[in-house]
Structure formats: C-alpha cells, structure tokens
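Job type: complex structure
Entries:
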Amino acid sequence: MPTERTQVVIIGAGPAGLVLGQLLQKCGIDNIILERRDPDYVLGRIRAGVLETPTVQALKEAGVGDKPEREGLHMNGFNLRWGEERCHIDFGMVGKHALVYGQTRVTRDLMQARQASGGITHYEAEDVQPHDFDSERPWVSYHKDGQEHRIECDFIAGCDGFHGVSRQSIPAERKQEFETAFPFGWLGILADVTPVSEEVSWINHPEGFLMCSLRSRTRSRYYLQVPKNEDIRQWSADRFWVEYERRLPRDLAANLQTGPALEMSITPLHSYVCTPMRFGRLFLVGDAAHIVPPTGAKGLNLAIGDAQELAHTLHAHYSGGHPDAIEQYSDRALGRIWKAVRFSWWMTTLMHKLSDQPFERQIQLAELEYTRGSKAAQTAIAENFCGLDH
Ligand code: FAS
Ligand code: PHB
C-alpha cells in the first residue's frame, strides 16, 4: 500500500478544510487534504453569502482576504420586515460591517491559493477513514485510482461536513449531541435578475418567511420558507416567482424582476452541536461539529472561525511552550459556537411561521415592534450578526 507522511491530514476541501490548509501552510506545518468529490462538484454547491468581520480577517491571514474586500458588497445593515412595517438594523451602531461575497467565490479563491502554494489536495479520494486517533501515531486510509493509500500523520482534522466520516467515526458514548429541528426549510433560488433592494431583508409573513439577498447588482439570491419535506421537483422558477411576489411587501414587489433559475435547492433548518470537538488526535471543524439554521448567516463564518482556531492551536503546539493548547481547542471553539447557535435559533424563531398558533405570531409581532423602538435591541442584533470578537 503506497504510504505518505505529513503532520496534519485534513478530511474535506470545503471552506473549513481549505482555510485550515492555507493557515497551516503559512505556519510551515505540512498538511494533505483528502476530498471525496472533484473540484467542480465542490464549487457547484451554492450556499452562503455573508462574511462577518472576523471571517474576513481570517481569510486575510490565509492570504485570500483582498478579493472579498475589493469585490464584495459592503453590508452596512439589513432590514427586518413584517407586513408593510420595517425596522432597519444599522451596523454603524457597533462600528462594523459585513460583506456579501458568495461561498462559491471564497472556495474558488482558496482552491487557487492552495494550488499556487503547492499544497497537496487529493480530490476524488474514496472511502477515507481515520485510524488510531487515540494513539500517538494516527493514520488515514483512502482509495484512489483503484489502490488503497495510507497517510501517517500527527493529527487529523475532520473538515468533512455534517454527513462526513469524521464524526461518524466517534463512538456514540464519547459524544454529547445537542439538536433541534424546525418543521420547515428554505427554498432558495439564484438568478441573474436585478435585486429588489441592495439591502438584505428578512421578512416575517403570516404564510412563511422570505428573504431578499444578492450576490451582485445583477444577481439575486432569494429564499422562501417551505414545509420540511417539500419536494424540489414540485417547484419551477415560475412557481417560485409567483409565491415570492405574493409574500413580498409592496415596495419590494414593485422592484421584483424575474427570470430563469441558475440554481434552486431546499435546505432543511436545524441546529446541531457535537461536544467535545476533539477526540485524541482527531479534531472536528465546521459543519462536521455543528449546524445552524442559515437565518443568522453563521454556518460558513463558524466553519472558518473553527479552522482559524485549530490552526492557531496546532501552531502553538508545534512551536512548543503551550502544552495545553491542544486541550483548549474544544472549549474555546464551543464558547464561540454556542453564542452563534443561540443567535441563529433566535432569529429563526422570530422570523418564521412556527405553527398555526395565533399566540406565537403575536409574540413575534410584539418582539418586532419592541425591537423597532429599542436601540439596545437593535444594537444586540447588530453585534451578533457582524460577529462577536473571538
Ligand atoms: P462543507 O460541507 O462545506 O465541506 C465539507 C467537505 O467535505 C465537502 O467538500 C465534502 O465533499 C467533503 N467530504 C464529506 N465527506 C467526506 C469524506 N468522507 N471524505 C472526504 N471528503 C468528504 N451558511 C451560511 O452562513 N449562510 C447560508 O445561506 C447557508 N446556506 C446553506 C445551504 C445549504 C444547502 C447547505 C448544505 C449549507 C448552507 N450554509 C449556509 C452552511 C454552509 O455554508 C456551511 O456552514 C459551510 O459549507 C461549512 O463548511 P465546511 O465545514 O467546510 O463543510
Ligand atoms: C445569502 O445571501 O445567501 C444569505 C444571507 C443571509 C443569510 C443567509 C443567506 O442569513
């Protein structure tokens, strides 16, 4: 069996794996990424769109922060809408801003940077398996081109997403899992039509949530709340536009441009956290360890935050003088993660149709009215959305 040797094996070449790979590279820590798909498949997944300030800092550290700052759309606030009512959340209240810059572009920038730096990424690596991560000599096996391969390493980083192999390799009795699922999902559409507004709006509608976001001044990203088990095959772009226009506030509906879908998909909404995030010499990073509903625009930002946390941890370990750095990774990451899980859960319960109970909707309307009249409440939303300092 062909055997390679490196310091850190990274499973998964999504945002977490690629950021970790770049940061380790810059610290002089050898690493190999194993990704089960090919690059085009990874780039074809249309997902997040908003980068928090700490995330842009991490991307700069990884050497790919200039393009988001140069080409991303500055987000200086957003709108909460209900009926024809509106509350503007101004990020200036906390002296920060966010950037609208699609996850696909972040991933492409990272792939190009890794290729330029000579980092090793084995795409289409099948049956990746972590081994002996409770020992001093962990290793990883995988299949490629009809051969089984082995990589001996010091550490394994599970950056393989919610359905990856890393977390599944941990026996149930060693994990404490926290989870709550919402009875609905987001039907998203990406279309080359002029956005209804240059500001992102979250809209609480009696028949279900909708969001107006964008990727550029000519490309829109919109979402509709749909029942949890909705079948995407039942939704054409035309059906989406009819329902979307029906729920939009009048001023936004007047600006709506429709067109063919570049992509349509349904994302279930749930919250999940696995603790701890370290098992011997195996670390869980990003969606491999936690999932948040996209309402708070946190998933991608959390994943990149974890990658930066782990890179600093491993740098402290290898540079010596910090014997407890490895032990601290999980608690430090979870402190940041739980605050984002709470905010994402809270935004979801505030803005979505949770049930047919009139009481729940009255509570939501009361909270929205209160927020509109309270700078303190608006400031709390702004500081959570822009990313709490790590
Ligand atoms: P990813 O899932 O991105 O990457 C994991 C990688 O590991 C993948 O490339 C996968 O192919 C690979 N992999 C999996 N199993 C493997 C194995 N056994 N061996 C080797 N490789 C393996 N977040 C937001 O902030 N806003 C949004 O609007 C938003 N929308 C989303 C929509 C959808 C449909 C989904 C699924 C997620 C969305 N998210 C959103 C969250 C999303 O952006 C994630 O938080 C982000 O991709 C997490 O990055 P990673 O942790 O790198 O995981
Ligand atoms: C997006 O632009 O895709 C987006 C924006 C904000 C969110 C989720 C998704 O909370």
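Summary: The longest helix spans residues 325-351. The domain at 3-76+97-178+269-348 is CATH 3.50.50.60 (FAD/NAD(P)-binding domain).
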